[in-house]
Specification:
The chain has about 550 residues and is an alpha/beta fold. The protein is about 35% helix and about 20% strand. Among the domains are: about 55 residues, no CATH class; about 180 residues, no CATH class; about 130 residues, Gcn5-related N-acetyltransferase (GNAT) (Aminopeptidase, 3-Layer(aba) Sandwich).
Length: about 550
């Protein structure tokens, strides 16, 4: 039987038998396939295309992707060489062992493969990713846009602006094409545009047809106009993140990133040791790292630091001390952390050292021991986002040999950790009677930080939080000596449509956290609050008394 006809029969049976979740659906598919002697099993996404909306809503594929309350969309910039040259471990770049791929990537990561398929065009990449999320049954109203592919501020200024403005235009155009004024998705129009159903989602002819349709829509656009439009679009960019190195993350770059709408910086510091970063050819100093973290925090950005255990010139003791330094030394204190154990890739200077026996990488066991020991020292204001790169392990020659390294670590070691990720509600039950506001005050990067959190004390869960900073210096005209800054407001819950009830979101906790921050600021004689707001969150702040000033939203206290 043709897949198309079989899916139609299956869809009717699913409705008739009240199948309620993904696991049940897959078992039911297998059972019906046996009954009809169907040789080719349709994928879950193919089945969902034939269901009515009320039935489709019951099945969400890969729910962890949007469990923190937002939908991440990662896109890649085109391959260019790093201005300083190449770090000794870096696998990618132009003329690399993997071909012409973005700096520090192999071309085999999911996001890189999507980028290659879409010719590194941000407009095409975003449409492609949003199409995937709709097919997976996820809400796409609140997007965290992550721009990957190396040191973004090192690209020409025009390329940076074009990349970002077409990203906003893609979200706006997707909204206009497939959503009505009530925010409802026109699924039939969506299916027709994306040439669905299809037997093969990677079919080159289908891809070409869709891309040609999109390139006709792309047209020229203006950054500021697209940003303003996105404030009220159905698909809103609530956070924008870029990757950079400390020497490309100073005041000049920070000002430009604010103009583009950026709210979070992924800062590749890799080590806190001067001899190590010199040896690996990072092209910056520890002073650059410390200055970058301070300047970017003083501008309001959230900082996610990348750190690499197992680099040359380190050992177990030095690695653990180095990672502890991130929080014991007040010049660092990142908001988020990605730990990437050093991996060896063909075509790199580190690979040559490895072959000659000059460098011995750490494996899964040794990496886990170092990270587990360090995790005890991670403060409650930090979120450990990753402990391994999103690169298939078969692309590496040596290093951590497991794709499921995080799972391995938690199964084999007693992990004590108070980081945000370890205490997120996800799908756990919350005792709403036991929610308390907590305030953690700490010095960092020559300024003062307040981590204000709403927590379920009974179940040790974090419901939401605010990061407020009293800057160390006033780097822009909007920032006065009597200003406080909100660098992040986050309330947890599964991603929902704008105005819909989430698991935790929209229970008023965002407003309560903001009120507490304003109260603390006033108590400390501050008369102005600035918020580095994602473009798509500005409307929320306007409703609670804030107005736009430069790249921020502000309120007199």
């Amino acid at each position: 039987m043709e897949t198309d006809k079989f899916c139609q029969i299956l869809a009717k049976e699913i409705t008739k038998n009240s199948i309620s979740n993904v696991d049940e659906l897959l078992l039911f598919r297998n059972k019906i396939s046996s009954k009809y002697k169907q040789k080719e099993l349709p994928s879950l996404i193919q089945i969902l295309l034939y269901l009515k909306e009320k039935d489709r809503k019951r099945f969400k594929v890969k729910p962890t992707r949007t469990m923190s309350g937002v939908t991440p969309v990662a896109i890649m910039t085109k391959p260019i060489p790093c201005p300083h040259g190449k770090c000794i471990y870096c696998p990618g770049g132009l003329n690399s062992h993997f071909g012409d791929v973005p700096q520090s990537y192999t071309g085999k990561e999911p996001a890189t493969m999507r980028a290659i398929r879409n010719h590194y065009d941000p407009y095409l990449q975003i449409f492609n990713r949003l199409e995937h999320y709709v097919l997976l049954g996820h809400s796409i109203n609140k997007i965290e846009l992550i721009i990957m592919g190396g040191t973004f501020p090192s690209f020409e200024k025009k390329y940076q602006e074009d990349f970002v403005k077409y990203s906003f235009k893609a979200m706006n155009d997707f909204s206009d094409l497939f959503f009505n004024k009530k925010g409802e998705l026109n699924y039939n129009k969506f299916k027709k545009f994306f040439e669905l159903p299809t037997k093969d989602f990677q079919d080159k002819k289908r891809t070409e047809i869709i891309q040609n349709k999109l390139l006709k829509l792309k047209l020229n656009c203006d950054l500021e106009k697209e940003q303003t439009k996105n404030e009220t679009a159905n698909i809103r960019c609530i956070a924008l993140c870029i990757e950079t190195k400390p020497d490309w993350g100073l005041l000049k770059q920070g000002d430009e990133l604010l103009r583009l709408g950026c709210t979070r910086i992924e800062l590749g510091i890799q080590s806190v040791y001067e001899d190590v970063i010199k040896h690996i050819h990072r092209g910056h100093t520890i002073k650059d790292t410390i200055d970058s973290i301070r300047i970017l925090k003083d501008l309001g950005f959230k900082i996610s630091v990348h750190y690499m255990p197992g680099l040359p010139l380190t050992d177990k003791k030095r690695d653990i001390e180095g990672m502890k330094t991130l929080f014991l030394n007040k010049d660092y204190c990142p908001d988020m952390l990605k730990i990437y154990p050093t991996m060896v890739s063909k075509g790199t200077a580190l690979y040559a050292d490895y072959l000659q026996g000059k460098f011995k990488p750490i494996g899964a066991k040794e990496a886990a021991e170092r990270i587990v020991e360090f995790k005890k020292f991670v403060p409650e204001y930090c979120r450990i986002q990753r402990i391994q790169r999103d690169v298939p392990t078969k692309q590496w020659e040596a290093g951590v040999e497991l794709t499921n390294f995080r799972q391995f670590m938690f199964q084999n070691y007693k992990v004590e950790c108070r980081c945000i990720r370890c205490r997120e509600p996800r799908e756990k039950n919350i005792n709403w009677e036991k929610i308390k506001l907590k305030v953690l005050e700490y010095e960092a990067s020559k300024g003062k930080e307040f981590f204000i959190s709403a927590e379920d004390i009974e179940n040790d869960l974090i419901i939401g939080f605010v990061r407020m900073r009293f800057p160390s210096e006033c780097l822009r005209k909007e920032i006065t000596k009597d200003s406080a800054m909100i660098r992040e407001l986050h309330v947890y819950g599964t991603a929902t449509g704008i105005g819909e009830e989430g698991l935790v979101q929209h229970k008023g906790w965002g407003k309560k956290l903001m009120q507490e921050a304003e109260k603390i600021a006033k108590k400390n004689d501050k008369n102005k609050m600035l918020v580095i707001s994602g473009i798509g969150v500005r409307q929320y702040y306007y409703k609670i008394g804030y107005k736009k000033e430069g790249p921020y939203v502000v309120k007199e206290l």
